[in-house]
Design a protein that fits this description.
By secondary structure, the chain is an alpha/beta fold. It folds into two domains: 5-197, 3-Layer(aba) Sandwich (Rossmann fold), CATH 3.40.50.720; 201-323, Orthogonal Bundle (N-(1-d-carboxylethyl)-l-norvaline Dehydrogenase, domain 2), CATH 1.10.1040.10. 46% of the residues lie in helices and 16% in strands. The strands form two sheets. An eight-stranded mixed sheet has the order 5-2-1-6-7-8-11-12. It has a four-stranded mixed sheet with strand order 4-3-10-9. It is globular and about 55 Å long. The protein starts with a helix and ends with a helix. Nicotinamide-adenine-dinucleotide binds at residues 27-33, 50-53, 83, 96-99, 101, 104-105, 108, 123-124, 146, 149-150, 152, 277, 289. The site of nicotinamide-adenine-dinucleotide has 28 residues, from helix 3 and helix 5.
């Protein structure tokens, strides 16, 4: 039977070429999506940024993406469009919306998610893989964390300084050639990616860090170093870390309290003047990721009978600040 042109476009390029991943679509091209998309495009990948921010898309289409890293400033040419303008099946979707926008964003490109399309989520919080699993099979989804930082400085302009890592794993714990190709591709773009069977540990430890620092800063307006100014705020932050890690252990995930407390104390000492993303969202009047962080911990903690009073108090306060 003869194929229509739309059917041909809906065939993945993998099927056409035998190379596991050719077309990359970055869904949610804010700070992180632009950084990842820019670095992958610079390394030779075929990348399209998909977002709903018209001024950001216009700037990228006109001038390319202004990418500023420790390697310097450059303009990177790559595709940029709105969800309804997507016209090809991607081999890999890198999901970088905020967690509360995941479902709407995937819904917006749903007809382009083919059975063989891979989806990678490195978003903060818990439950990202389960959300994505409404749109793809578990063996096509990878989840993890990244310690790369990024800031959107203006339309078409992203900056990232320092070095970060990616740790990820297929949602069903399996391996395959496309997944390994993705790891290699990210490494070649300088993004330092490791497939890590202990990714749940990394996810939970990052959630513990964020549940403490992000929520306290969002409610008080303190910058990260500000949390170290009183013994009480420091005790509160470490108390939230302990609660989150207790929930992780009750859920069967091994976590290291000393490692998380060490990272937290290092951030308080060194990240002087830094406003975590949740505080930035509150200051800009945007919704925060509190539900995927403190909210998810509280829900699971209560289900498993683990005390989460401090984490729950911060959840209530951030929600109140969001609607104030
Ligand atoms: P961001 O707000 O800068 O970018 C999110 C983008 O998603 C925005 O450009 C927004 O317009 C877009 N978006 C929203 N709804 C959409 C839709 N329906 N369709 C398409 N695009 C849509 O956020 P970010 O800072 O890049 O963070 C993304 C994720 O990465 C979050 O989960 C965050 O916690 C995590 N993260 C961020 C950093 C960082 O330094 N920024 C570091 C590690 C992890």
């Amino acid at each position: 039977m003869k194929q229509s042109s739309i059917e041909r476009k809906r065939m993945s390029s993998k099927a056409a070429s035998g190379v596991p991943i050719q077309r990359v679509l970055v869904l949610g091209a804010g700070a992180m999506g632009s950084l990842f998309g820019g670095l992958l495009a610079e390394a030779g990948a075929s990348v399209t940024l998909v977002d709903i921010n018209a001024s950001h898309l216009d700037a990228i289409r006109q001038h390319g993406l202004k990418l500023v890293t420790d390697e310097g400033m450059r303009q990177v040419r790559l595709g940029a469009c709105r969800p309804e303008e997507v016209s090809e099946v991607p081999d890999l979707i890198i999901l970088f919306t905020k967690t509360m926008h995941t479902s709407a964003a995937l819904q917006g490109i749903r007809s382009w998610i083919a059975p063989e399309t891979r989806i990678l989520s490195l978003q903060n919080g818990l439950g990202n893989g389960e959300l994505v699993a409404r749109f793809a099979a578990p063996d096509k989804i990878a989840v993890g964390i990244t310690t790369w930082p990024a800031d959107l400085c203006g339309p078409g302009h992203v900056a990232s300084h320092g070095h970060g890592k990616i740790r990820c794993m297929r949602l069903d714990g399996g391996h395959d050639a496309a997944f390994e190709f993705m790891e290699k591709m990210l490494k070649e773009a300088g993004l330092d990616c490791t497939i890590d069977p202990l990714v749940s540990t990394a996810i939970w430890e990052k959630v513990a860090f964020n549940a403490a620092l992000n929520s306290i800063c969002a409610v008080t307006g303190a910058t990260v170093d500000g949390i170290g100014k009183t013994a009480e705020s420091l005790e509160l932050a470490l108390g939230i870390v302990d609660e989150v890690l207790s929930v992780a252990r009750a859920d069967g995930v091994e976590v290291d309290r000393e490692r998380v407390a060490g990272t937290l104390l290092h951030a308080i000492e060194h990240h002087v003047g830094h406003k975590p993303s949740m505080l930035q969202d509150v200051l800009a009047g945007r919704p925060t990721e509190i539900q995927a962080i403190n909210g998810a911990v509280v829900a699971l903690g209560e289900k498993l009978g683990v005390g989460v009073a401090r984490t729950k108090a911060l959840l209530a306060l951030v929600k109140l600040v969001e609607c104030a």
